[in-house]
């Protein structure tokens, strides 16, 4: 059946079609100006959840990167302090070897003992090292100075671990406690054979001057200082390993960040080439709809009757 | 042989002239109403006039005949298909419902501002990051200050969204009241239908066909049908009775209007408004919870989840200070508040200044139940809006299609009217010519016959 066409129908349909094409044009235009494929949840409800998750991932990765950077700086400061401490211990070992030699008199040994005392103070100062206002060797008691220079050798920090989250569900301790290498932990029976007691022993033996003292200098003391050097080296190896692990985590996070940004962009961002093509296509459709609409609405038999 | 009046032909032509004049009048009426809403085109129905019955003696064999007496206008017909009206009103009901729902829901969707940098999801992300920042520098009061500020922003965003939904609900209720109120659209349309009923009844009793009044009444019924389910009963005397939604008494019965009445599930726009503002626990016979209240319930569950999850870690034994506080059930989102100051933030189990186990544990909540509960709320609103918009589009297309078919039957086509105009004009001219031919014949008979030799 041929449909009978009325004038109202023609103009209503023409208007409805124009509105529809114009709406599409507007949507495409909005996509272009915002650069976003999804501007509101109803554009793509599933895509919106993925976009929200994607944004969360990116934010989490950025935060993890900040965590890793912080942990790396911490490791850097730790490593510098430990390397200076190693120098201190090596110097102490040189002095010990020198002092143990029988060619030295009482006066020389006294002055070597004085230098050892100075080295003890230096070691304490290094162990009081700070990063961003925090004592790095004091466990979690980061606002407490772990050793008092010129005072007793007791460790004032605690046994806590400073932990940084470097990946989703991955946390690592970043701190080294002073009690582990300088010693003096009140919770451990003294003497603990760690650096401070060892250096104090050496100073005492140097000053003592008896045959037993000299013998101790040559045997137990040198063994003790070597043990401490090993201990320091092993702690530095741990710090190095942690640093490596953090560097790896940093690289991985950077890759993850790129991947997450890319996938977020795939979900959220408009495909410009496609949007532009759509736009010109829709514009052409709109213009021809306008043109034909104008012609159809204008003409009637009235124009031809005289 | 039976004689027929000499002037019979004049009368016949006169009828032709009059009938064509009426037809041209109707065409003119159609043309002038081409753009009148709800107008049905009319047609002057012409039929041969009652013939002049000559019983015997007209024909040669003495038989009778019926002699054509010209043309008469039998009726001014209104061209309309009542079945299409029913279909149109059924679609208009759906369109009213979906567009009513869509406009309120789109507002809520805009309020979410997701996906984006200002939505709750982004604030939640920043909130978890603030906990990480505290974990990285627990000794630093500034990071905790920042955390507390961020927590306040998050709580504020949740409270704002809740307030927005409440405002929209109030607006929807106000719209319902203004439509159904004593001065609202329903009342004024019902009053007009009652008046038209009286006028139509009067005309029908007189034997007239009140086409234009019927059109006007149909337009009102079309408009009513977008608000709620309308069913019309013909009372047989031209008047109608109109049942509206699930109102107990007919809205209009002949000349009586019964309004306002209580509606429960009327369908159409009013049904949509009622569904949007319905309470969370469905009131029988309805089985679905109110849309807006169910969004609020989800938002409350989300606010409670965030607060509970953070509090459980911040205040493990329940003996210390909670990080967030919230009010009674059903107001969690509206009353969500930060309960601590920067110095009161608990970031570690022990007292050590550098410990951060609690901060790390809370930062680990990122992406857990709270995030997911918000995400599913966003997905739910998004899907609802999309679905409603799709249904609205469908209903629009269907309403348009049925209106096209209705227009195809009842609408005025200029081309058709123009050709009719030409047709009737020619008919008028030809009738006039027939009359003047008879006139010339009579002239011969009256003025010239019997004058031979004068």
Please give a structural write-up.
The complex is a heterodimer of chains A (306) and B (454). Chain A is mainly alpha-helical. Chain A has a domain at 54-264: Up-down Bundle (f41 fragment of flagellin, N-terminal domain), CATH 1.20.1330.10. Chain A has helices at residues 7-34, 45-100, 106-127, 195-208, 211-268, 272-298; strands at 130-131, 134-135, 163-167, 170-173. The mean pLDDT of chain A is 89. By secondary structure, chain B is of the alpha+beta class. Chain B has three domains: 8-79 and 412-448, no CATH class; 90-178 and 290-401; 182-259, no CATH class. Helices cover 60% and strands 9% of the residues of chain B. Chain B has twelve helices and ten strands. Chain B has a four-stranded antiparallel beta sheet with strand order 5-6-7-8. A two-stranded antiparallel ribbon of chain B has the order 1-4. In chain B, strand 7 (252-253) and strand 8 form a beta hairpin. In chain B, helix 2 runs antiparallel to helix 4, helix 2 runs parallel beside helix 6 (211-227) and helix 3 (120-136) packs antiparallel against helix 4 (141-180). Chain B is rod-shaped.
Task: Furnish the topology, listing elements before pairings.
The complex is a heterodimer of chains A (306) and B (454).
Chain A: H1 7-34, H2 45-100, H3 106-127, E1 130-131, E2 134-135, E3 163-167, E4 170-173, H4 195-208, H5 211-268, H6 272-298
Antiparallel strand pairs in A: 1-2, 3-4
Helix pairs in contact in A: 1-6, 2-3, 2-4, 2-5, 3-4, 4-5
Chain B: H1 8-32, E1 42-48, E2 52-56, E3 63-67, E4 71-78, H2 82-112, H3 120-136, H4 141-180, H5 185-205, H6 211-227, E5 230-234, E6 240-244, E7 252-253, E8 256-257, H7 268-277, H8 291-314, E9 324-325, H9 332-335, E10 337-338, H10 357-363, H11 369-410, H12 414-448
Antiparallel strand pairs in B: 1-4, 2-3, 5-6, 6-7, 7-8, 9-10
Helix pairs in contact in B: 1-12, 2-4, 2-6, 2-7, 2-11, 3-4, 3-10, 4-7, 4-8, 5-6, 8-10, 8-11
